[in-house]
Each structure stands twice: as C-alpha cells, then as structure tokens.
C-alpha cells in the first residue's frame, strides 16, 4: 500500500493484495478457530442432550391427551437456556478471534514483513479479549437507540391492542420511532468501527479503543461511512458468489432424496441413499456458508483496518514515522530492498501510484501536492 492518504481504489486494491499475499495465514487461523468452535459447540450440545436424555421422550412424546409434567419440562428448559448462552459465548469468542487476526496480518503487511501461522495465532489469541470487549461495547452503544425505540413502542402497542377500540396509531408510531433510531445507530456504529483495529495494532483496552476510534473518525464520518459501505457490498457480493455453487450442488444432491421420499411407501423408513443424499447436501451447504463467511469477515476487517491506517496517515503523519523506523533499522538489517530485487508478490507492485514511497521502497521520490488548507476539526488554530 502507498504511504500516503488512501483513495477508495487504494483501499480496495490493498485489501485484495493483502488477502492474496497472506491468505495462508488468514485461512489457517480462521479454519483453526472455526474448527475449535465447532468442536466446542458439538461437545456442549452432546453434554446437554446426555444430561436431559431421560426427560426428552416424556416432553416431546407425552401420552395422548396429556401435557408434559413439570418434573420433565423444567430440566429441558434449563438445559436449553444454558446451552443457548454457552453456544452464544463460544460464537462471540470465535468471532472476536477472527476479527483480531485481520489487523494483526495487516500490521505486518504495512511494514512489508512476512509472517507465520504461529505468530498470527498468538497475536490474535492475545488480543481477543480486548477485541471482544470492543465488539460487545460497540454493539451495546450502537444498538441502544433501536432498543430504546422498541422499549417505547412495545408498551404502546400492548395498550393499544388490549383496549376495546384498537387504534392503528401504534403501527404508525413504529417507523416514526425506528427510522431516527436506526440513523443514530448507524452514526454510532461508524464512529466506533475502527475500534477492533485499534485494539490490535495499538494494544489498547476496549474503552480506550472506542475513544480512539471516535477521535480518528471525527470530521471524516461521511468518508469512512461511504468507503465502509462499499467494502461491505464488495465482501457480501463475493461471499454470495462463493456460497452459490455449494448451495446449488447441495440442492441438486438432495433431489434424489426428495424423489425417493415422494415415491416411497407410506411408513417406510429412510433408505441408505436418502441418508447419503441428505448428508451430502447438508455438508455442501455448510461448507459453502463457512467459506463465504470466512471471506466476508476477513475482507471486511482488512478494509476497516486499512481505513484505520489511512486515518493515521492523514492525521498523525504515520507514513514518515514508518519510514523513519525502517531507516533506523536499516544499518542492522542490511540494505533496503530495491524494485529489482523485491519479490513479485510484494504489495509494492499493487500500488496505484508507482512513485509513492512505501516501507519497502522509502527512497522513491515523493510527489508532493500543492499545500492544502488545514481543515481538521480537532486541531486548535491560532485564533
């Protein structure tokens, strides 16, 4: 990526280039996280089923005309709620770790350094608690306006329906409350969208990451929102195209199952072919969903992390800091690579401006634009 303020094309190309260069590390960590998450979820579900196994039949297949007894129904409800909470916690932890690995990879990509699966795994594991806290706080803060609107509308709706003469005004009240609440939620979510990158790259605590994200986005909200929206659309579109072939293969794989079920005798049990078709179709759909989700999470987080780097370049002169750091390390590490001996897959070959200095090529002449007036809203002026 060029060490200069990034345009939309720079962010898009650098995201694809980083994903292409470090895909082994990204995919490796993501597969390991998803595999562990699936294993933990399977074990939790197995333990829950084993704990209430004796109560399942009395609850779901009670004698005709009788309701399930409380002594059987209560353990099922408790086990179900407990399993839901544990599965939700496992899913949030895996999401936080998947989110943490992308800024960790980009941190090395910006410096032009190679990395390994072990290094990315350790970094993501160490920063997962902070990223998880930042994600939870962001969700609570950004979702608060919508929750407040629903908290106002639901009692009004209940009172309106329970009255003798129900009024349609309660239905009209919902969009009146929800539309501005959604707008405020989007504004808050964009202000805090850089928090995961801050938590990883600056090793910040969750609250500090939220404050830092808000400070970096201040004055550039519309630009961050627009570029983030474009990145989300790109990630969603590609993820859908990845998932579609798996869904088609899975659906066509289940056609023999549906045909045999329609021609089979009533009351006959499932045949081996039906079971194989069902398992094959289910696995294809699940694999497609997993692969598309990995790409969507990875690309979206790389996009957001690049916006974090861009804001620091624009506001904090990060490009010169990185070049100075490289220059200080050059005597100990040897000469700086030149375009002739740089590997073909380096990020320097994906730049839109070939003359822009990078960490890999700090000796490139920088084309300095005409000075622009300082318009940063949070920088004090002389008056």
The description of the largest β-sheet is: none
Strand-pairing-aware structural class:
mainly alpha
Which overall shape is indicated by the principal axes computed on the Cα atoms? globular
Helix content: over 70%
Please describe what this structure looks like.
Helices cover 74% and strands 0% of the residues. Mean pLDDT is 78; it is low at 333-383. The protein is built from 12 helices and no strands. It has helices spanning 8-21, 23-51, 53-60, 70-110, 117-162, 169-191, 195-201, 206-217, 221-253, 255-263, 272-316, 318-333. It is mainly alpha-helical and 383 residues long.
Quick description:
With 383 residues, the chain is mainly α.
Task: Provide the descriptors you would attach to this structure in a database record.
mainly alpha, disordered C terminus, 383 residues
Q: What is the element layout, followed by pairings?
A:
Blueprint lengths: L7 H14 L1 H29 L1 H8 L9 H41 L6 H46 L6 H23 L3 H7 L4 H12 L3 H33 L1 H9 L8 H45 L1 H16 L50
Helix pairs in contact: 1-11, 2-4, 3-4, 4-5, 4-7, 4-11, 5-6, 5-7, 5-8, 7-8, 9-11, 10-11
């Amino acid at each position: 990526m060029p060490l200069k303020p990034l345009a939309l094309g720079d962010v898009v190309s650098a995201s694809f280039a980083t994903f292409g260069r470090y895909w082994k590390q990204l995919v490796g960590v993501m597969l390991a996280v998803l595999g562990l998450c699936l294993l933990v979820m399977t074990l939790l579900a197995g333990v829950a089923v084993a704990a209430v196994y004796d109560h399942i039949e009395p609850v779901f297949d009670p004698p005709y005309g009788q309701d399930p007894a409380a002594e059987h129904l209560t353990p099922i409800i408790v086990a179900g709620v407990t399993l839901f909470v544990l599965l939700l916690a496992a899913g949030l932890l895996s999401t936080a770790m998947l989110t943490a690995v992308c800024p960790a990879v980009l941190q090395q990509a910006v410096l032009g350094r190679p990395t390994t699966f072990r290094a990315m795994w350790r970094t993501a594991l160490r920063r997962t608690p902070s990223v998880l806290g930042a994600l939870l706080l962001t969700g609570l803060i950004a979702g608060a306006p919508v929750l407040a609107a629903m908290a106002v509308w639901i009692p009004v709706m209940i009172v309106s329906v329970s009255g003798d003469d129900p009024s349609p005004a309660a239905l009209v009240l919902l969009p009146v409350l929800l539309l501005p609440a959604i707008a405020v939620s989007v504004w808050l979510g964009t202000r805090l969208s850089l928090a995961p990158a801050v938590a990883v790259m600056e090793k910040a605590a969750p609250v500090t990451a939220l404050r830092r994200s808000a400070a970096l986005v201040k004055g550039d909200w519309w630009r961050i929102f627009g570029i983030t929206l474009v990145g989300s659309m790109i990630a969603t579109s590609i993820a859908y195209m990845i998932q579609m072939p798996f869904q088609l293969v899975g659906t066509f794989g289940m056609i023999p199952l549906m045909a045999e079920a329609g021609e089979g005798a009533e009351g006959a049990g499932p045949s081996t072919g039906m079971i194989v078709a069902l398992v094959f179709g289910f696995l294809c759909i699940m694999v497609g969903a997993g692969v598309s989700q990995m790409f969507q999470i990875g690309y979206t987080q790389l996009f957001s992390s690049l916006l974090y780097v861009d804001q620091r370049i624009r506001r904090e002169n990060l490009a010169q800091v990185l070049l100075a750091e490289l220059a200080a390390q050059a005597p100990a590490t040897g000469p700086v690579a030149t375009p002739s001996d740089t590997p073909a897959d380096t990020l320097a070959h994906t730049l839109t401006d070939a003359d822009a200095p990078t960490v890999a090529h700090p000796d490139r002449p920088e084309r300095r634009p005409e000075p622009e007036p300082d318009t940063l809203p949070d920088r004090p002026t002389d008056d």
